[in-house]
Amino acid sequence: MGKYFYSLILLISFSIQQASANCPGCIIDLPAGMSEDTLFLGMLPNGTVGTYYDEDVSFRMPMTTDPVNEMDPDVPAGLNINNITLIGISNLPPGLSWEASATSFDPQSETDGCFKFCGTPLAPGLYEMEVTVEATVFVLTQTVTFPMAILIEPATSVNDGFSLINASGCGEVVASFENNVPSNGDTGFSYSWDFGNGQSSLDENPSSQTYDQPGIYLIEYQAIIDTSGYVLTRVGVNDVSCFDIPTFPDFSNNPDLHVEITDPNGDLIFESETVWNTDPPIEVFPNITLEAGQYQMKVIDEDSGINGADDVCAEITFNQLSNGTISFDDFELELEIFHPVDTILSTDTVFVYEIPEQPSIFNSGADEFCDGEMVVLTSSYEENNQWYSGGELIPGETESTLDVAESGDYQVEYTSLEGCKAISEVREIIIYENPEIPEFDNVNNLLSLMDGITFDESYVLQWLLDGVEIEGENSESYCAMEDGIYTLEVMDLETGCISIYTETIDYDENLACTTSTEELEDHISLQIYPNPAINWINVELEVNEPKVLEISIYDVLGKRVNAEIIEQEVFGRYIEQISVSGLLSGIYLLELKIEEERIVRKFLKN
């Protein structure tokens, strides 16, 4: 059962911490058509430092262990989940807080909820948060802590030390740097760069750096500004052995002290005022800049000495680095040498995100099909898709599938959670136009294409009766010989596309199936004999101008029964004798096609 709880809790990965009233009012927005008993959690988008973050994340809790069992067969199915409690989270990015629609759920009565995350992220980085969730099945409750990551991207690439140009990208980033602490040619400036990619530099303005592997690269910068030099700000005379002979009026033997300083060239550069009858310690403040070399300092008792001159109470040699206390047996001096050095430390980050694998497009059928049909294109990614046609974005088409009913060059683009994109190869879909609909008229049982509709040799026609092909009937007309549903089908031989036209025909046995005999008498006379026939049937006609004659014989089901179609040009009186000895006894139809005219006559075979 422990494995069940672990699997369940991992699947319910909600980002929570101590609830805060700073983020009220999330909106539950779940995809339509979702199963009632399922696991779902919306994605938490990336944030950016310094940019206010306000995102709602909707979720649906499972009611039973069935959804978990579908993902992990080791988890037993069919168990009701009694309670799910969202406990807390640590290591949420600084500046963010949250509020949930609820933190405790009875999945048997309530499964849907949402979180609002808001605030202004303060620091960039990939934050691996520690999430705690508690689930109860029957009376057994288990608490599990697990990681969940959120990426906070840097808001700006400008800091005290430098500006970072091109701080993030996909696949490869070439970043450049502008020093915000320029030396302007002055001495006393030094720099140190660590680019986080194994390269470093001491240059003031380093060259661009290439980051060609996915990762997070920390750039560390240091500028040391040492332009003020060394300044002797204070001299403390803590103890000297000099003293004066007591004299009137105060009879004090305290010395009268002053300080003299000479530079490395022996020139006097500082002399303090005399402090009369002083009892050390005393302080003087030279505030002189020290150059390289050795300086001399004397502490002098200005009263006449034992030998009739001023007494040197203390004398030392010092330099720029002699900061601190200098002691001998009979005196102690304290030097304060100020050496102001400014150090600027700055960091920034380069993010290189992995370019996702190029998506592939699969389809439910061929890439070429006919108008009125449809093909479904499917992306190899289930989410974060965008479909294109002819290089142009198709608005709203972001699902994993696309229904295509028009010709075009189709592509799908996938965007990773980091914003990196990959686009598929072009998938060309060709949709051919269907042939013109072969509408036909019924004149005296003769079914013929309507006026203005013609098809050349790149099309093939086929007549059907009640959905069954009539063998050999591929012309533009057909003589109906019985009641039924007649269909004319036309196929484009180049594309395979088909159009059909269907009509219910009521056969009239009193009609001649085509132009009446009276209408033909002006230019054709026709006789068929003997009728009934036994072995032969004669077709006799007289044509007053050259005509192409075609003769066929059909049974009452519309099947052509003569082996060859008799076709020749006739003029004047013409007799054609046709053998019918191989036919079974019964009624047959003799069809004569004369140019655009068609005549059908019945005869009986004994």
Question: What can you tell me about this protein's structure?
Answer:
The chain has 606 residues and is mainly beta. The protein is 3% helix and 50% strand. The chain has three helices and 47 strands. The strands form eleven sheets. Strands 28, 30, 31, 33, 34 and 35 form a six-stranded mixed β-sheet that branches. β22 (295-304) and β23 form a beta hairpin. The protein starts with a helix and ends with a strand. Mean pLDDT is 83; it is low at 1-21 and 515-521.
Number of folding domains?
Answer: 6
**What fold name goes in the CATH topology slot of the largest domain?**
Immunoglobulin-like
Q: What distance separates the N and C termini?
A: 90 Å
> What is the tally of beta strands?
47
Shape: elongated
Low-confidence stretches: 1-21, 515-521
Briefly, what CATH class of the largest domain? Mainly Beta
Question: How much helix is in the residues?
Answer: under 10%
Keywords:
606 residues, mainly beta, Immunoglobulin-like, 6 domains, six-stranded mixed beta sheet, five-stranded mixed beta sheet, 3 helices, 47 strands, 50% strand, elongated, disordered N terminus
Topology:
Blueprint: H1 2-11, E1 40-41, E2 47-48, E3 53-60, H2 66-71, E4 83-90, E5 96-100, E6 104-105, E7 112-119, E8 125-137, E9 140-153, E10 162-165, E11 168-170, E12 173-179, E13 189-194, E14 200-201, E15 209-211, E16 215-225, E17 230-239, E18 257-262, E19 268-271, E20 282-284, E21 288-290, E22 295-304, E23 310-318, E24 324-327, E25 332-338, E26 342-353, E27 361-363, E28 368-370, E29 375-379, E30 385-389, E31 392-393, E32 401-404, E33 408-415, E34 421-423, E35 427-432, E36 440-443, E37 446-449, E38 459-465, E39 468-469, E40 477-479, E41 484-492, E42 498-505, H3 517-520, E43 524-529, E44 536-555, E45 566-579, E46 586-594, E47 597-605
Parallel strand pairs: 2-9, 11-26, 28-35
Antiparallel strand pairs: 1-3, 3-7, 4-6, 4-8, 5-7, 8-9, 10-12, 12-15, 13-14, 13-16, 16-26, 17-20, 17-21, 17-25, 18-19, 18-22, 22-23, 24-25, 27-29, 29-32, 30-31, 30-33, 33-34, 33-35, 36-37, 37-40, 38-39, 38-41, 41-42, 43-44, 44-45, 44-46, 46-47
